[in-house]
Amino acid sequence: MNEPLLKVKPATISSTEFFARARTRLDFEVPPGLVDPNIIPRTGDSGNDRMLEIVAQEQPVRPAAVLIPVVDHPEPTVLLTQRSPNLSSHAGQISFPGGKIDATDASPLDAALREACEEVGLKREFIDPVGYLDLYGTAFGFRILPTVARVKPGFALEINEAEVVDAFEVPLAFLMNPENHQIHTKEFRGMDRSYYAMPFAERYIWGATAGILRVLYERIYLS
User: Can you tell me the distance from the alpha carbon of 134 to that of 189, in angstroms, rounded to the nearest whole number?
Assistant: First the structure.
């Protein structure tokens, strides 16, 4: 299955309006489901929700944080990374800067900022955090709390090749256009579960990254 979810006219808003809406609709309250296995992040897809219930019973919760770095160009972009093919999980996939929350991290925000610096050298002085997006669960037991952030242009990246092999920017307008939101399905223990994909040129953005981008679209553009 490979089709857009909604046949609607793409929403277009300015950079100023995007950040204004984000600041109004997001905050820094940490959801209890980040660490509580009894609270299942809901996706609205029955197959996905059942999968997350099963995963919560079988695997320990793995709290994680990512940064959604929206670069404040006249035409905003989102900074993404391509993970190293040598990693033990999600090797070679397109991701946001981020990773597991360490005990030494003061908050999920602090974890996301630390990981962005460690992975691609994005310095904190360029980052203006806006708020947390909805908690996102994965089939690997991760509970991901994304931080939406405004990033000032002019930064210089330093790629940590042990973790990522590339960093690149994708126009926010492309990622927030529902015509680019494909739905694919795969089987999980006899049940169909869906996932998003947003192919961009030679980049295949899918899975949790595409799913989180879809949540961003729903929170900022549809609400």
Answer: 26
At residue 187, what are phi and psi to the nearest 5 degrees? -90, 140
* Whole-number Å distance between alpha carbons of 142 and 139: 7
- Cβ neighbors of 47 (< 8 A, separation 6 or more) are 188, 191, 192, 193, 194
Enclosing H/E stretch for 7: none
Distance between CA atoms of residues 186 and 192, nearest Å:
6
Answer whether 143's CB lies under 8 Å from 35's CB.
yes
Task: Take residue 183 and report the two structure tokens written for it.
Answer: 């739905």
CA 57 to chain centre: 24
Query: What predicted TM-score, i.e. pTM, was given to this entire model?
Result: 0.91
Q: What is the DSSP string of 27-64?
A: B-PPPGGGT-TTSPPP-S-HHHHHHHHHHHHHS--EEE
What DSSP designation does 9 have? P
The region that residue 206 occupies, defined by phi over 0 for left and psi between -120 and 50 for alpha, beta otherwise, is beta
Q: What percent of the chain has pLDDT over 70?
A: 90
What does the alpha-carbon distance between residue 123 and residue 26 come to, in Å, rounded to a whole number?
23
Residue 103 or residue 49, greater confidence: 103
- CA dist 21 and 181 (Å) reads 21
Which pLDDT score is estimated for 114?
Answer: 98
Question: Could you please report the per-residue DSSP string of 172-211?
Answer: HHHHT-GGG-EEEEEEETTEEEEEEE--BTTB--BHHHHH
